[in-house]
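On clarity, I found the account of how folds are encoded harder to follow than it need be. Since the whole study asks how a given chain folds, the encoding of that fold should be made plain. For the editor and my fellow referees, an illustration may be useful. An entry of this sort, consisting of the sequence and the corresponding backbone structure tokens, reads as follows:

:::
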Amino acid sequence: METNAKVAIMGDYPPRKCGIATFTRDLREAVSTLNPDWDCPVLTVTDPGNAYEYPPEVRFEIPEPDAASYLRAADFLNLSQVDVLCIQHEFGIFGGPSGEHILNLMRKANMPKVVTLHTVLAEPNIVQRKTFDDLLDGASKLVVMSAQGGSMLRDIYGVSNEKIAVIPHGIPDIPFVDPNFYKDQFGVAGKAVLLTFGLLSPGKGIEYAIQAMPEIVKHNPGCVYIILGATHPNLIRLNGEAYRESLEALARDLGVEENVRFVNRYVDKSELCEFIGAADIYLTPYLNEAQITSGTLAYCFGAGKAVVSTPYWHAKELLAENRGVLVPFRNGIAISEGVNGLLDHEALRHGMRKQAYMMGRDMVWESVAKDYGRVFEEARQAFQTPIRHNVTTNALGSLILPGWRWDHLRRMSDSTGVFQHAIFTIPRFREGYCTDDNARALLLTILLDESGVTDLKDIQSAGAAFLENAYVEETGRFRNFMSFSRDWLEPIGSEDSHGRALWALGAVIGRTAKPGLRLWASGLFERALKVVSEFTSPRAWAFALLGLNEYFRNMHGDLHAARLRADLAERLMELFRKNNSHGWSWCENIVAYDNPRLPQALIIAGRWMANEEMQNTGLEALRWLMERQTGPGEIFRAVGTKGFWEKGGEPAIFDQQPIEAAAAVSACIEAYEATGDAFWRTEAFRAFHWFIGQNDLTLPLYDPSTGGCRDGLHDHRVNENQGAESTLSYLLARAEIEQLRKKPR
């Protein structure tokens, strides 16, 4: 990592009292000390019901259950231009089911994420597995503190070796000294000292160590067992000091109350090191095998302490090859035998201490900080930084729009028309052409002509020629699909494609200043309009209504067209009356595709026909739709194509399509024109921001390097193909936003 890097570290933080808070602080201090030129801000999560006076390095506080705060934290990280984010992950410290709120932050934060996993579950439940899988996918690198953790990630979760780094739990650099040096200050001079430390809770198995004390004292009179640490705050809230009191009662019942000393407080690092220094043997009688990391074990082992422990995963790995004594779970007799064996054999104990201390040199925080620095650099190298755009939902009017770029649209076109699909940025010739996309292309060029952008005359000409060729006089219908060899693939196209063709033709008639183009469009529009009354597709009605609205810019005296407009609008209105119910302000039993066009057509028709009920129905439906097309942080979230949204169900979140964002932009602008309500102007910009990164993945769909638009938003990535529909959807939305910006508020 270069000098002046900015590495944000996220986790619990002191004065909150827990192991993760201590680890986060120690990691941050070690990284900052090793790299004094780095800026290492801290983001911390505060548990419900508590408030802490955090030190100055804590720059952002997230209330654990508040989902919106995680998104604001991501905004903070993005605006701070953080190079790497290092997240301390433990189940139970983040809000949402199984801590899923952290996922929204990870999706929105545009930087590599290094996630330190303090727990890896061997048998997660369904919700835990889904959340953990998403967490693993969103990380650039994963840090575990034991080889066992790495094996579990590979074998259970299918994580590649390249993504995993094994870095030991960091420890303070405690000198290797005789325990007798520290004992007098605790009043235990000349006595054998056993130690367990950490927040007190039932899972620590301390009752079994106390059960071992009578036999230990019998062989080693005067031996003292120090139990250091306050009771866990969560346990205090639930049960008070009942667990500690039960341990004290057990010691009394066994007659060893003078040999068991409780230090009921949370000690700072310097005092903790003195307690560790005074210990002859460290005990970890934990009850559960499934623990891949123990910070207390790491501290004492690395300080050169002889250890007696139950065989949980981290202990088995660290104490292998006679570096400690392993005893069965829940077995006081075995603990007493292990302790007495070490106390009775001083040479064995000191040899074990030396082994531990030598191995612990790689665990001191300076060494661990170097390892993290290497991982941060690997994450930065591997991460593909999404394009940043300086846009915010609080400054919509000052949005700096990307400049026009036609490279990809020209690549996707030839003299016949616009190709349908692309593989990445390469046109897929075998997919051919379609009327839908060429109608969109023609509509775009007309809107651009109005704005003084005349760079696409060839595409305008090809689009008009394509529609002329697509129309069949005998049927009165447009064909839709054409092969690359210019063969039509169907006798009659869809009603929707016919409606889109009428929409483009209406725009030519209503907007162009080119007499020849306007005359051509007028003739084709009149002929193609005749069959529309036979259509049954609501979207075809809506597209035709949009085309009629364009047509009436210059031809508002056409009675035949006016009657058709009234008929189509009433049909659409009747669908809304029929299907509208409590909580469902829609015209069908499913919200499917190109959805905003349906209320947009009603708003337009109601406005120009002076039908207040119709206009208000369209406005109500559009507001209902936009409210539900809203994700965390007020982002635009289109109804996804993987299931759409059936009445009575939940809307699909993915895959999100550019056509939906473009339709939302257009419909909201129409609502703004009709009402003057600034809400709709804001909504139009919100939908447009989806293209440039304000979406569920915080990834841009628009590609400024090509001028194209990616084909959609999947649940974990963008679809990198840049097809015609997507590219034209973006360009149409861009053209309409440009026109909106030029109008007075």
